[in-house]
Write a structure and sequence with these properties.
17% of the residues lie in helices and 28% in strands. The chain contains eleven helices and 33 strands. The strands form eight sheets. Strands 4-5-6-7-8-9-10-11 form an eight-stranded parallel beta barrel, surrounded by five helices. Strands 16-26-17-22-20-21 form a six-stranded antiparallel beta sheet, with no helix packed on it. A five-stranded antiparallel beta sheet has the order 15-27-32-29-30. A hairpin with a 4-residue loop joins β1 and β2. The chain starts with a strand and ends in a 13-residue tail after the last strand. The C terminus is likely disordered.
Length: 624
């Protein structure tokens, strides 16, 4: 057993000074079968510690419905096996460019305050989650050195009673290792986010000396640490791909270490926002109160280890710097890549209305549109229906408070797409008419004063100045499509036998355009050929399973499942143009593929292509 503590100037392990060279790697953004490789890559870069957040909403999507909360413990075991210490940041709020900053959509009370209702829910969650951290602390023979209290709280609030209550809760469940906070190196952030008795750390991307000088004005003693060294950045849909020069980032890292500080690379390896868990930010400068900026599926972050787990030029530059401060391990064997490219054979289609009928929630009707939260939709879409009375002349149709994007149909015909910034339909609507609005959440805000805001049509539906009442709404959660076993075509003669899509003798044949999928209850038909949105299904033949890229030429916006694994959102606005397919998701031979297209599919024969990743550009400079 060891003892880890904070001294006047250094971290101490069994009384001896130690520097933490840590890297952020989120277990929930990496396929579990690839944890070992990614952790070995951290060691090969010269790191001795790994840091991870914990997303509450992933593990408790509904109150009391816990989903694999034990994953954190398994990850910490993998870290220890890889020879790494660990830093745990359990939130409850994590930011992380993650849906709602990790907070569940169903929370009651005032989040991130000392509100008793909110804290009661946090306590119940922590008492479920934290025993696996407690038993893996360094003083019990495990890898965990430190645990964070909240996250960047000084960027949000000033309720010191809330931080104090969280610290007390952590101690009451058995956390004995040092507690810490992390905030930006600014006066109001440090005064609002730090807590007596917990180590204060700072987050930044450059100017380490100035940042630590600011910290020292508030904390003259204690080890210096940059808890988030932003060595890259994230991308937004519709924006430009963001990169940071490797040499510039390496010099900024060197400056941190020359200050005698410890560091946590954010991110060492970013991974992927699978299954639509991407968050969103608000533009508008420092106030973060401007237009919605939803995050892309890839969380590559321009990190030193890229989304596919490969070393980049930044990796090599960082390795050179870190080698001056500790041992550097050998690179692990590279993951296998796809052996042979192939195209997905799409064989069936079902309208969105059919999918909603079989997989959606209970329809509700009321005078005003319910929000996603009221319909218990965390990720997914809601169909709103309303009747325009008549006869009446054409007037503008307005979806007030729309969040985030709606495809509108009038009397069954597509009439346009509305966004938060353009809530008025282009063509006026005459009555009587039946209007449908298919609204998608592009990710709840994960940072700033507008985090926690509701999704859906939040301000009512207007026909000119008149509210339209009698709104019918049905929600479709993305996880309703995760169970491939109940979506797969089933051979009734031998349910264990796979269906051969090329064999017309199969009782249930995906190539048969008129035979419905009996197990899903969704009636599939021939692909319409006019680009209609809906659920497309197909088969992919794989030879040489390994990491791959899925290309979607001509598709507009939606989600893809491979063998029941949700790869995440695609969207033609870019900058992301393809989806990462982890090798462990694929299997030799036939693979099931499902595409939920929400806007418009390619009309001239929809196709998806699977190929191996492009080779990563190599740095021609020699490395140590």
């Amino acid at each position: 057993m060891s003892e880890f503590s904070t001294g006047e100037t250094d971290f101490l392990l069994d009384g001896r000074p130690v520097r933490l060279l840590s890297g952020a790697l989120h277990y929930f953004r990496v396929h579990e079968a690839q944890w070992g490789h990614r952790l070995a890559m951290l060691r090969a870069m010269g790191l001795n510690c790994v840091e991870t957040y914990v997303p509450w909403n992933l593990h408790e999507p509904r109150p009391g419905d816990f989903r694999d909360a034990q994953a954190l413990g398994r990850f910490l075991d993998a870290a220890q096996e890889a020879g790494l210490w660990a830093i745990v940041r359990p939130g409850p709020y994590i930011c992380a460019e993650w849906e709602n900053g990790g907070l569940p959509h169903w929370l009651r009370g005032r989040a991130r305050t000392s509100d008793a209702v909110y804290l009661g829910q946090v306590e119940r969650w922590f008492r479920r989650l934290l025993p696996q951290v407690v038993e893996r602390q360094v003083d019990r023979g495990g890898p965990v050195l430190m645990v964070q209290v909240e996250n960047e709280y000084g960027s949000y609030g000033s309720d010191t009673g809330y931080l104090r209550r969280l610290a007390e809760l952590l101690r009451s469940v058995g956390v004995t290792v040092p507690l810490f906070t992390s905030d930006g190196p600014e006066d109001h952030m440090l005064t609002g986010g730090s807590l007596p008795g917990a180590l204060a750390t700072v987050n930044f991307g450059s100017d380490a000396r100035a940042a630590f000088q600011t910290l020292r004005r508030y904390r003259p003693d204690g080890p210096l640490m940059c808890m988030e060294f932003w060595c890259g950045w994230f991308d937004h849909w519709g924006g430009e791909h963001v990169v940071r020069d490797a040499g510039d980032a390496a010099e900024a890292l060197r400056e941190i270490l020359e200050c005698g500080a410890s560091v946590n690379l954010y991110m060492a390896h970013g991974g992927t926002n699978f299954a639509g868990w991407s968050g969103a930010n608000r533009g508008g400068g420092a106030l973060h109160d401007g237009p919605l900026e939803p995050d892309v599926t890839s969380y590559d972050y321009d990190a030193p280890i890229d989304e596919y787990g490969r070393p980049t030029e930044k990796f090599r530059r960082f390795r050179e710097v870190l080698a001056e401060y500790g041992p550097v391990a050998e690179l692990p064997p590279a993951p296998a890549v796809l052996g042979q490219p192939d195209e997905v054979l799409l064989s069936g289609w079902a309208a969105l209305s059919a999918v909603l009928e079989k997989r959606g929630g209970t329809p509700v009707e009321g005078p005003v549109p319910p929000t996603f939260e009221e319909l218990d939709v965390d990720r997914g879409l809601v169909r709103y229906e309303v009747d325009v009375p008549g006869p009446r002349q054409p007037y503008p149709l307005i979806a007030r408070g729309l969040r985030d994007l709606a495809v509108v149909y009038v009397d069954g015909k597509r009439a346009g797409v509305l966004t938060e910034d353009d809530v008025r339909l282009g063509e006026p609507v005459a009555g009587p008419a039946r209007v449908e609005l298919w609204v998608e959440s592009l990710g709840r805000v994960n940072y700033g004063p507008r985090s926690g805001e509701a999704k859906g049509i939040t301000g009512g539906l207007l026909h000119e100045r008149q509210f339209l009442h009698g709104v019918r709404a049905t929600g479709l959660r993305l996880d309703a499509l995760d169970s491939i076993d109940t979506l797969n075509p089933v051979n009734p003669v031998n349910p264990a036998a796979p269906v051969d899509p090329a064999d017309p003798a199969d009782p249930v044949n995906p190539a048969d355009p008129v035979n419905p999928d009996s197990s899903a209850g969704i009636g599939f038909s021939a692909i319409p050929g006019d680009g209609s949105p809906g659920l497309y299904r197909g088969v992919l033949s794989v030879r040489g399973a390994g990491d791959a890229v899925l290309e979607l030429p001509g598709w507009t916006r939606g989600f893809v499942w491979v063998n029941g694994f949700n790869l995440g959102r695609y969207w033609s606005v870019g900058p992301q143009r393809s989806l990462y397919v982890p090798g462990p998701v694929l299997r030799e031979g036939g693979n099931d593929v499902w595409v939920l297209e929400l806007e418009e599919a390619p009309a001239d024969g929809p196709v998806l292509r699977l190929r191996a990743p492009d080779p990563i550009p190599l740095d021609p400079r020699p490395t140590s």
